[in-house]
Amino acid sequence: MIENRAPQESIPKLALNRVEAAQALGFSPATIDRLTQRGLLRPCRATYRPIYSVKELERFLKENSKPSEWSI
What we know:
Blueprint: E1 15-16, H1 18-25, H2 29-37, E2 52-53, H3 54-63
Antiparallel strand pairs: 1-2
Helix pairs in contact: 1-2
């Protein structure tokens, strides 16, 4: 039987689990857990496992980044 399926398009992820979020930020999953406990990262808890939106990870980086003292 031949199935007529269109090639699966790559849909960008809107949210990541804690392991994916850790990889995206270059942290360990334990660091993601600590940042969440400190309130620096806010996951969506609508599901059994917390998920981190890409926008939330971008917000975290923006709010916790300091301009380099060496920038011109």
